[in-house]
Amino acid sequence: MSEREVLELLRENARYSTADIARMTDLKEREVEATIEELEAAGLVRGYQAVVDWDKLEDERVRAEVELNVTLDRETGYDDIAERLARFPEVKALRLISGDYDFDMEVEGDSIREVSQFISEKVAPVPEITQTVTHYVMTSYKENGIELGDGESDDRLSFSP
C-alpha cells in the first residue's frame, strides 16, 4: 500500500469516500481510514478545500500575485519574514522562490482598494521588504489542476499564413 496513492487520490478529489479510495487502491476501507488519519496526524494532509471559479460569482473576489524582494540581516531570516506575512488572513499562499524576487504571495480581498491598502499598509512597511510588485489576476483558466470556465470550445477561426 502506498501512502502516495492515497495522497494523489485525495488531491484529485478530496470528496472521495474511503470506500471509493479502497476500490481504487485495492485496500480495505479500514486501511484507507487509518492511512488518512496517519497522514493528517503527521501533518502531510493539512486541510481540504474546494476549488472555486470566482469568475462565475457576481460578488467577485479580487486576487493578486505579489512579488516581494527582501534584505536579510543577521537576526532575520526568510522563515521569520514568512511567519509574519503568513499570519495575515488576506495572504492565501506564500512561497520562497528562486529568480528575480524572493517571495511570491497570493492575496485576496473584496476590492482593488482593499488589496492595495493591505499591501501598502501591512506588507510594504515590513522593514526587510525592499520592493513589492503587484499583479492583479484578471482571469483564471486553471486552479489546483482543475480547468475553469464554461468548458465550451474556442470558436475563433484558426489562422495560418
UniProtKB/TrEMBL annotation:
It holds the Pfam family HTH_24. GO terms for biological process: response to amino acid. Keywords: DNA-binding, Transcription, Transcription regulation. Residues 1-79 form the HTH asnC-type domain. The keyword Transmembrane does not apply. InterPro entries: AsnC-type_HTH_dom (IPR000485), Dimeric_a/b-barrel (IPR011008), Tscrpt_reg_AsnC-like (IPR019888), Tscrpt_reg_AsnC/Lrp_C (IPR019887), WH-like_DNA-bd_sf (IPR036388), WH_DNA-bd_sf (IPR036390). Signal peptide: none annotated. Coiled coil: none annotated. The keyword Translocase does not apply. GO terms for cellular component: cytosol. One of its GO terms (molecular function) is sequence-specific DNA binding. This is Lrp/AsnC family transcriptional regulator. It comes from Natrinema zhouii.
